[in-house]
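agent> call fold_tool(seq_1)
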Amino acid sequence: MAGWARLERYIVEDLLGGGMNFCFGNLFSDPILRIIFNKAMWNINTHQTPGSMIYGNTIDFGTDIPRNYGALSSFALADVIGQMKYPTGHAVCAIPVTEAIRVPSAEEIIESHHTLDIMMEKARYYMDYIDFGRVEAEAKLLNVSGNVFFERVLNALDDLGVDITHAGQVMAVLKGIGAEQLEVHFGVGKKDALAMRGREPVRPTNIIQTISATGDQLIARMPELAEKPLEGVNVVIGATDIHVFGKEVIKKILRVAGANIYDLGDATPVEEFADTLIETESKILVVSTYNGMAYSFADAMVKKLKELHLEDVRFLMGGRLNEAMEGHDLPEDVSGLLAEMGVNVDNNAETIVETIRRYSV
């Protein structure tokens, strides 16, 4: 993330003459890491452009309300302390404790801010006892690592003949290459084929740690993967939106099983899935979804497969299989409708390898 921040700042500030700051927080469960990253971003803030807000940590939120209050208190306290020590201008965002359960009511939103109020009141007592020297050393490590990524990417673009002084060219080529390939080839961490981006991050965010641990736990319960049951099987995988937790876990399992993975990343359009299936001669399509668009996306995908005479492609969809259907305000389960279209909706990480093996025989 520090490398991407440096790259984005280069485009906005150095090439376009603007000023920018970054919002972050929803992927950070570690309270101290939130303070460290805030400081790292301020270190490269050339024009000292104020931030807008630090997002609340939603990783730890679930259906346990008392636990959610604990998560709210932990990140809010850290964010307040961070702003007291390094005032970057970010507002501290209080997340209602019902966020993971339902759309919060106005009263619940107000309650979360009351919790934040007491964190603001007590934060000053911690200030003299936190080792800010260590915080700043960790922030510097992120900056140095991020700058290595930035320089590698820029040098590669220059070698390709891209005008690295032209913001439009730089952005167009970066989008064309894609975030994953840039991180695989120019990242700073140790190379690891099973890591999320082919490398172990220098300092992983909590969501990366969680994804890795979840995948490892599932793989440990699947000893049959050692026999590489999917060796030689081409699998196209991607997500319908920016949420890639499930996709990354499944990708890791399939890779251990021996599959050849063609990962199209997040917010992948139907057309790109179809083109990649044709280019790679893949017969397996795995799509992860979360943002309440399962039915409309599956419908468009199935129609595209029929249009291109790819009816022999097996389409598996997992994640949050819901959507607000006509006449309803809230998302409802649509897995039955997807199954009627011929989409596999088993939605089970522990059986997906066997399912794909059977499809590939």
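agent> call fold_tool(seq_2)
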Amino acid sequence: MYRPDSKFVALFLCSSALLIGCGDDEATGQASGTGASAGAAGSAGSAGSGGAGGTSGAGGASAIPAPGELRVIEPGAPTICSRDTPFRYFVRGGDPKKIVIDFQGGGACWNALTCSVAGSIFNEAAPTAAAIEAAVKNETFGGIYRFDKAENPIAGFTFVHIPYCTGDVHWGDATVEYSADVKIQHKGFVNSQEVLKWVYANYDPDQILVTGCSAGAYGAIGHSAWIAQQYPNAKVSVLADSGCGVVSDTFFKESFPNWNAQLPTFVTDLQGKDINTLSIVDLYTAVAKDFPNVRFAQQTAAFDKDQTTYYTVMGGVEADWSPKMQQTLVDISAGATNFSYYLSPGPVHCIHPYDLMYSRTTGGMQYTTWLDQLVSGASAPATAKCDGAGCQDDAFCNACAAKTETDPACKWCEGWPKP
């Protein structure tokens, strides 16, 4: 649940030098580019005929951006960010039959202490169109956001990016006053579902990748059942990047009530269950069972520095995180035949935002080959993983230490390996 630095926020949110200008026409309820008056997502949005909203929704069919074009859409109520600032999302045009739905990461808060630390433990606001425009000028875009890179398995896809500004891993539907000075809009579920309504109204894809890094990984699995239900004939893959759900014994009980966490309780094995007692294994296996044709997957590093840090903040013991994480992956695999995972060595948190994904190899499998098979292959890829001492021997971190590697992901290698 990594909260990126400002430079990385720009990278993660705009993500490609090929994004064509953000325009100067960003405004509440509007999207850059040409919209339509017919609303596509209910009552949200009030842009009028010139934007992507219209008086009855967040966009019409003509609101689909052209290939390479970026749309910034601010739908208005009921969406909102944690401290009552506007929510907005981004769509980069591509093949309308191939779509990536990408949930942003950025920390979490769940009590008066964690929610009172403005901006340092979770993303509290959506980026502005100006920030996106500035990011376009930054040439440090990496990973899946290199839309022009032939080796990128999702090159040419339409890309829908759902920002995260509510501290609830995209699952919340609550307004909480933690103290006289701290009120948080935990509306991540509401925001994400409004984006998905727009997608449903505007696209009929054959192929979908649902993904997210860190806190976005939980958004991906949490909303995947709704997406799979909406598109029963599409090839759907769900890939959670560095969000394994290893939490303290009390975390869900402490956070879920405050968030009013919304999970797909229409899924058979979740019906009638107390979601406050569910584990991440329960969630994955239940959703995978109801959607056997969907490919579910995770990618994580064996000693992910950020996930380990959050685990200790929750009251866990640092040394326990990696074995618990690996057992979680084994347990999901045992309960879901349509689940596989990619376990990398070392401490790097998230692979998709970095060019590391183009060089990473684990268990003899190149990551981009594994990802391409997950998204487009005739069958899902098998699990690829490091083992034993090999999980501590990270060639990437070794190159960072030797100053022969300059990928921004090197920051995760500082202090690695531990004595």
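agent> summarizing second result for user.
The longest helix spans residues 318-335. The first strand starts at residue 70 and ends at 73.
agent> awaiting next instruction.
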